[in-house]
Amino acid sequence: MAKYILTALVNNHAGILAKMAGLFARRGFNIDSLAVGVTQDPDISATTIVVNGDGHTVDQVLKQLSKLIDVIEVKHLPAEQAVSRELSLIKVACDPTNRSEIVQVVNIFRAKVVDVAPDALIIELTGTGDKIDAFEQMVRPYGILEMCRTGMVAMRRSGQ
User: Fold this and answer.
1) What burial letters (b/e) apply to 14-38, b meaning 16+ CB within 10 Å?
2) Residues in contact with 6: Cβ distance below 8 Å, sequence separation at least 6, in sequence order
3) Domain 2-76 grouped into CATH 3.30.70.260
4) Is 125 within 8 Å of 90 (Cβ atoms)?
């Protein structure tokens, strides 16, 4: 099974996300990542959906999604034509003896400390899923107290 990035422009109406997710559920697809946000036009939202599957089934889902009333446009976005990013917030345990070590890792990954407490740091990291996974592995020995991660957002490269 391959990973597919699907992008959709939809009318910003209540219930459209549930209808889209329902199509995937009926096909037996697990959505690996889902991100939705308003575009430059407040009446339109951009949706990025990442799924694993085979090409034929993904094509069928794309056709069915395009038939939904509030879907303006839906496309498969090949990874090589995409600029994609995720955001994560990671709360890492720390104390005065290891705080500077953790900050060095933060700097290497071009992340940002967004909150400091005597016993923890909250770190913001934006990048590819692989970058976020690598950062997570580097700070895991210090103790990850809490972590949340957005889904992937993606856009077609210019000139593609």
Assistant:
1) eebeeebeebbeeeebeeebbbbee
2) 48, 49, 50, 51, 58, 61, 62, 65, 74, 75, 76, 77
3) yes
4) yes
- In CATH terms, is domain 83-156 a member of 3.30.70.1150? yes
pLDDT surpassing 70 at residue 160? no
- What is the reported pTM? 0.81
- Give the integer Cα–Cα distance in Å for 103 and 127: 18
C-alpha separations of 12 from 40, 128, 139 in Å: 12, 27, 38
CB contact at 8 A, 33 and 4: no
Domain boundaries, the chain: 2-76, 83-156
Q: Do domains 2-76 and 83-156 have the same CATH topology?
A: yes
Cβ neighbours of 132 (radius 10 Å): 22
Q: Taking 80 as the threshold, does the pLDDT of residue 27 lie above it?
A: no
